[in-house]
Amino acid sequence: MPLLLTSSPAALLLPRPSRERFRVAASANIGVNGSAGAGGGGGGFPAFLPRAVERIRDGPAIRLAKRIERVPVQTGFPKGPILSSCVRPLKQQQDSDPVVLLHGFDSSCLEWRYTYPLLEEAGLEAWAVDILGWGFSDLEKRPPGDVAFKREHLYQFWRSYVRRPMVLVGPSLGAAVAIDFTVNYPEAVSKLIFISASVYAEGTRDMTRMPRFVPYAGVFLLKSLPLRYLATLLAFHKIPGGPAGLFDWVQIGRLHCLLPWWEDSLVDFMMNGGYNVLNQINQVKQKCLILWGEDDGIISNKQAYRLHQELPDAILRQVRECGHIPHVEKPREVAKHVLDFLGTQRPEKAEQGSSLPSTVGSC
């Protein structure tokens, strides 16, 4: 679940949601058993996914999870290449720019479970990439978790596999990742798409001088099911499927937290100051699309107008009746905006959203 990461450790404690802030559709029994832990591999899932992946009942999430793979990325890390998790396109093309999908803070490529199929069906070469330190990469050797190394890792991934100027898509804190990367490697990015962008927080600088047990305590809380439930309710305007749907979305958003190095990687990131891109925004010269949920309860959509004014070449589109993660809540609408921005013809199959259950992302 991509949570807003601000400069204060109190950001790990989310406010109590008002009952008027969210709606959950008709109730249903959960009835899901199984124990969490590392070592998947059953049911066609990659063996490196936590065993809890087998408890997920969401069809698009299951299909995308089965496509996650680890590819070696050679960086300056002295302990060898990093096996980095991503979803690769079924076919690479040469007649259009590839689209590389990042994710939010403390999340994974499974954020794209509903929108990725629509982009792929529309003929885009789409990559869903886990930002180093989150997602499902092999971090047993503990590579650095600071911003500079995250940037280098993404660049080496792009250089090894994507190889052409890309449309870089950054939701929530992924927008800060995208801005930092683009300013440092402008030749690698042709266009930018920001979704509910978290770009005005000043990192985690208040944590850099704290004893390490303090962020570890916050990370322990962040992993807990009660906080994940609360964060999920705050992040969405409407969750389909009642309690069972809510439970499934919590399990999907929490899956990467069950990897054994998750706590260490997240604490390392927070202790190194996090992302602060305030002075980089006006250095972005690429054409940009800004998407924002009108009912975003995590980051006010007033920041959408501020970002629109500060970027020299940007288009702003609001998504109605939608919370902080439009590509999960309104995938068809997000796909439409992306395809319009890229000037891509939308085939009938993608317009109808044939890969999605009827309860998800209607617009």
From TrEMBL:
<dbReference type="GO" id="GO:0003824">
    <property type="term" value="F:catalytic activity"/>
</dbReference>
<protein>
    <recommendedName>
        <fullName>AB hydrolase-1 domain-containing protein</fullName>
    </recommendedName>
</protein>
<dbReference type="Pfam" id="PF12697">
    <property type="entry name" value="Abhydrolase_6"/>
</dbReference>
<dbReference type="InterPro" id="IPR029058">
    <property type="entry name" value="AB_hydrolase_fold"/>
</dbReference>
<feature type="domain" description="AB hydrolase-1">
    <location>
        <begin position="99"/>
        <end position="336"/>
    </location>
</feature>
<dbReference type="InterPro" id="IPR000073">
    <property type="entry name" value="AB_hydrolase_1"/>
</dbReference>
<dbReference type="InterPro" id="IPR000639">
    <property type="entry name" value="Epox_hydrolase-like"/>
</dbReference>
